Amino acid sequence: MSETFSHRVLPYDGVDDFLAGAVPFLNAGIDAGDRVLVVTGLGSEVLLREALGPGAGEVEFVDANQWYAHPSRTLADCLGDADRLCEQGRRLRVLGEPAWTGRRPLEVLEWQRVEAIVNVAFAETGAAILCPYARTLPAGVVASARRTHPETLRGEQALDNPSYVDPWAYSAMCDQEALPDAPARAERLDIVRPDLFWLRAWVTDYARRTPLAEEDLQRLLVAVTEVVTNALRHGAPPIVLRMWMEPGELVCEVKDDGFWATDSAFGLIPPRADGPGRFGLWAVRLLCSIVQIRTGKGGTTVRLRLSLPSVPAVVGV
């Protein structure tokens, strides 16, 4: 693969700005025989189909809300495609307009982190990724885009982005804020032995008192087992498990007094099947909606968050 990886932000004020950057980017991929993928909303899709004309038939269009459903899963799927195409001597070309509307602050933060990690994960794939950001988005979202993309696209010209931040430094910034203490209502289990049968039974009992779906409960059990096993191996007693509910979420926290001496990745990048790396924390990120990790001299805390299905209100007659 001779192409150089690129990850650019396309800030735009309106339709003309959007098309001036997006259409040449997509046409270049069509002409080169790339796999060209467009991830955006219906309005932008209609504009692009019209602007591309017959070339639109060479482009795969995907709804942004479907694509941007889960940070780690989307990253894994896209990276897997890029790796396979690279092995075939082809390039993955993605125009991806993140879906920011309606997301909770923690979700926004994790997607911003993914934008930074893309620069490390895809570096050897030769992929070309262009991310349009409307200037009507919240100022913090647009400012973050300038820190997570090495280049800014103006029409067909790529300019170095002076606000760009090293991906690992940016990821560390996402974890700077200390986690708030677990609420007083949280239920607690002290982990005093390596036999995890009772732990899984305890988690199951609590989770079944919530709206959590059965398949999500199974995911939670695997994730909790992995995190507690890490705490037993790399942490220090006391090891405490807490669970509680927040609006729309079930939260499970594992806390110990040790410092997890691990690399900066913390499971943020999918391990290659033929390369180094463990699947433990990466698997945990795949299994849960959001994973928060804090480690240092004061100990290590891992919070697993799983989204709960909305329960329809009961209307009296």
Automatic annotation (TrEMBL):
UniProt cross-references to Pfam families, sorted A to Z: HATPase_c_2, MEDS
Domain MEDS: 7-150
SUPFAM superfamilies the record matches: ATPase domain of HSP90 chaperone/DNA topoisomerase II/histidine kinase
Keywords, in A-Z order: Kinase, Serine/threonine-protein kinase, Transferase
Gene Ontology MF annotations: protein serine/threonine kinase activity
The Histidine kinase/HSP90-like ATPase domain, residue ranges: 199-305
InterPro entries linked: Anti-sigma-factor_SerPK, HATPase_C_sf, HATPase_dom, MEDS_domain, RsbA-like_anti_sig
Record has Transferase as a keyword: yes
This protein's name: Sensor histidine kinase
